[in-house]
Amino acid sequence: MKKRKERIDRGIKVRSADIFALCSWREMLYLSSPRLLPIVGLFLLSFLLSLYWQKVLLSVSVFALLAISWDLLAQSGMVSLGQALFFGMGAYLAGIMNHYWGWSPFLTIPVATLFGGLFCTVLLLPVLRLRGIYFAMVTLILPIMLVRVIEATKIFGGTEGISGLSPLPSRWLELYIIIFALLAALFGFRRLMGSDFGLVLKGINDNDRSVMNAGINIYWFKAQALFIASSVGAFAGAFMTHVYMFVGMPVFALDYSILPIAAAIVGGAGTFAGAMFGAFILVPLSEILRGLGGLRIVFYGLFLVVFIVALPEGIFHYIQRKYHQFERWVEVEK
Amino acid sequence: MLLGTLIYGFVNSVILALVALGFNLTFGISGVANFAYGALYILAGFLSWVLFNSVDLPYAFAALFSVLLTAIAGALMYRFVLLRIRGMVLSEVIATFGIGLSILELFKYLGFIGFEYTLPVFIDSSIDIGQVVIDMQRVFIVTIGIAMAGFLWLFTHHTKTGLRFRGIAQDERTALSLGINSDWVATLSVSFGAAYAAIAAIVILPLGTITVDHGYEVLINALAVCIVGGLGSTGGVVIASFLLGYAQTFTATYLESHWVMVVPLVAILAILAIKPSGLYGEQKELEERI
After folding, report:
1. How far apart are CA A254 and CA A297, in angstroms?
2. What is the pLDDT of residue B132?
3. Does residue A327 fall inside a structural domain?
4. Residue A9: its H or E element
5. CATH number for the segment(s) B2-288
6. Are B109 and A293 within 8 A, CB to CB?
7. Nearest to residue A298, comparing CAs of B40, B98, B213, B113?
8. Which of A230, A277, B73, B236 has a CA between 20 and 30 Å from the CA of residue A198?
C-alpha cells in the first residue's frame, strides 16, 4: 500500500480568482491580506519599536531594497555578486554633492539615485553581452576595484572618507522615506514583472536567444533592467549616507553584496516579497548575533549554501504554497 | 633596472599562471566555476602553517599533508554540495562563493591575522642573473610553475584519468555512454583544482604573509586570467598570465603599487570589448556568451 502526497488548490483560491471574489468578505480578505500585511506591518512596527530597533528597521529596509534590486536583476538573467557597487555609487555621489557643493539631502538623494543608476549602467554596459558566471565575476570585481582606485588616488577623502554630512531633518522622516521606498519598490516591481516589459525580461532569463529571434533587442531591455535595479541600490546608498552622515570606503564592503543575496536566497528568489522577507529574517538575526563579530559573515555564507542545497525555493515559496494549496496523502493506483 | 623588471615580471606571470591553472582546470572539465578557489588557497596556506608550527611536523610533510587535505576538502565540497546543484550555474556560483566566504571569514574570526603567519622559504639564498639579484624561492616558483603546467598537459593527454577528464569536457553525454562516470570525474576535477590551489599557495606564500584578504585577490586574479585567456583553455591561461603579469609589474614599477589591482579589471573590460570570448576561448563562445 503505497501512498503519495497530493496537492490541490484551496477552494477559496479558485473562488477568489474571478469576479465573484467581490461578493464575499472572506474571499476579499483572502486576496487582500497578503498585500496588506507588509504595508500595515511596516507602519505598525515603526510605531511600536524602541529607538534602537527603529534603527534596525531602517537597515532592514535598506537591505530589503538591495535584495529586491538583486532579485530584479536575477529575474532578467543577470546575477550580480556586487550589489555594493550600486550602493557605494549612490552613497559617494550623495556624499560628494552634499560635501563639495552643499546641496540639501532632498536634492542629493534623487540626483544620486538617478545618476548612480546611470553610472552603474554605463560601467556595466560593456559586460551586458555576458551572462551567467561571467557577469557575476565582473560585478564581484568592480566594487573591490573601486575601493582600490579611491585608495590609490586619494580622491573624495581617500581612506578617511567624507564625514560631517547633513542629516535628514527628523528620524521619523528618515523611517517613512525608506518604508515608502521599500513598499513602492516591492509592489512596483511585482507589477512591472507582470507587464509585457517584465515578460520580456523573464524571457531573457529563460532563453535569451529565442527572445532575440523574436526580433527584440535584448541588450536594450537588459540595460533598462540594470538601470532600474542599480537606481534602487543607489537610492539605498544615498539614503544611508545621510543617515550615517558619513561616506567612505566601507560602502563598497562585501556586506552590501552578500547580505542582499543571502536574503533573496533564504526568502526565495523570483517574487520580490521573498527577498524582502529574507531581509526581515537575516538582518534582525545578525543584529542579535552582533556579539559574534566577524562570525556573522561566516553564518551568511553557510546560510547561502544550506538554503541553496536544501531549500532552493526559499521560505516564501513554501509559505505561499501552504497558503494557496492543501496537501493530503492518497493511495497510489496500480 | 629594465632587466630586473623583466625578470620579476616573468616571475609574476608564472605566479598568475600557477594561481589560475587550478581554477581553469576545474572549470574546463566540470563546468563548475569554483568561487571558493581563493579560500582553498588560503586554507592550504594556514593548514601548512598550523601543521608546521603547532603540530611540529617537518615542513615537507606539513606541505604534503596540507595539499592532500585541501584536495579532500575540494572533493567533499563537490560530493556534498555541488553534486546536488550540478548544472544550475548560478546556484553553483552562489554556493561556492558562500563556502569560500565562510572559510575566509572564519579564519579572520579565529584571529589568523598578523606578520607571524608566514611560510618558510625552501632554501634561503639568492642568485644573480646579470646585475639582478633574485632569491631562490622565486626560482622555485618558476620551476614548479613550468613543471605543473607540463604535468597538467602530460596528465590530460597520456593518462586514462586525464583522457576521461577531457572526454567529459568535450561532450558529457557521449562520455557517459562510453562508461565514464561524470560525477566521479567532476569530483576529481574539483579536487585536482583544489590541490593545484594548495601547491600554488605553498610555493607562492613564502614571499609574503598569509592574509585573508589575499584570498579575494587570488580569486580575482584567477578570474581575470581565465577571462582574458578564455575560460577552459590552458594555452590561453598561460598567454593571458604573461600579459597580465607583465602589465602588473610595469604598473608597479612605473606607476604605483595601488594600481596593480586595477590592472585585472582593465584587462577584463578591454578583452570583453575587443574579443569577448577571450584570447583562446572560441570553442566555448556560443555556450557562455551571446
Report:
1. 9
2. 74
3. no
4. strand A3-9
5. 1.10.3470
6. yes
7. B98
8. A277
Q: Is residue A276 part of a domain?
A: yes
Question: Measured between CA atoms, how close is B186 to chain A, in angstroms?
Answer: 18
- DSSP state for residue A249 in the 8-state scheme: G
- What confidence tens digit (pLDDT) does each residue in A271-314 have? 888 889 888 888 888 788 777 777 777 887 888 888 888 888 88
Quote the pTM value: 0.81
The residue in chain A having the minimum alpha-carbon distance to the alpha carbon of residue B82 is A309
Give the residue-averaged pLDDT of B232-258: 82
> Which of B102, B216, B219 to probe by mutation at the A interface, max A CB count within 10 Å?
B102
Beta pairing, strands A246-247 & B126-129: unpaired
Task: Name the residue range of residue A254's domain.
Answer: 66-316
Mean pLDDT for A313-334 is 85
Helix, strand, coil tally for chain B in percent (to 5): 75, 5, 20
Query: CB within 8 A of B88, min separation 6: which ones?
Result: none
Angle, CA of B238, B243 and B249, to the nearest 5°: 120
Distance CA A261, CA A74 (A): 10
- Tell me how far apart the alpha carbons of residues A97 and A82 are, in angstroms, rounded to a whole number: 24
Answer whether residue B290 shows pLDDT above 50. no
Q: So what's the ipTM on this one?
A: 0.76
For residue A130, pLDDT over 60 is answered with: yes
List the end-to-end C-alpha distance of chain B, in Å, as a whole number.
45
Beta bridge partners of A246: A163
For residue A203 the three cell numbers come to 524571457
Cα–Cα distance for residue pair B266/A123, rounded to 1 Å: 12
Q: Is A205 among the domain residues?
A: yes
**Closest of B32, B37, B21, B118 to residue B82, by C-alpha:** B32
Judge whether A125 is closer than 8 Å to chain B, CB to CB: no
pLDDT tens-digit map of A30-51 = 888 888 888 888 888 888 888 8
What is the number of domains present in chain A? 1
Q: Are A132 and B90 in contact (CB under 8 A)?
A: yes
Residue B38 grid coordinates: 581563493
Per-residue pLDDT averaged across A58-68, rounded? 91
Give residue limits of the domains in chain B. 2-288
Q: What is chain A's mean pLDDT, rounded?
A: 85
**Neighboring chain B residues of A297 at a CB cutoff of 8 Å:** 101-102, 105
Domain membership of residue A185 (yes or no) is yes
Least Cα distance to B288 among B232, B206, B219, B240 occurs for: B232
pLDDT digits (tens, 9 = 90+) for B220-230: 888 888 888 87
Q: Which residue of A has its CA nearest to B278?
A: A134
Average pLDDT over residues B98-111: 86
**Amino acid identity for residue A51 in this structure:** L
A302 Cα to chain B: minimum distance (Å) = 6
At B282, is the pLDDT very low, low, confident or very high (cuts 50, 70, 90)? low
d(CA A286, CA A301): 13
Task: Give the residue among B181, B150, B112, B175 at the shortest CA–CA distance from B14.
Answer: B150
- Going by the DSSP 8-state scheme, the letter that residue A253 receives in this structure is S
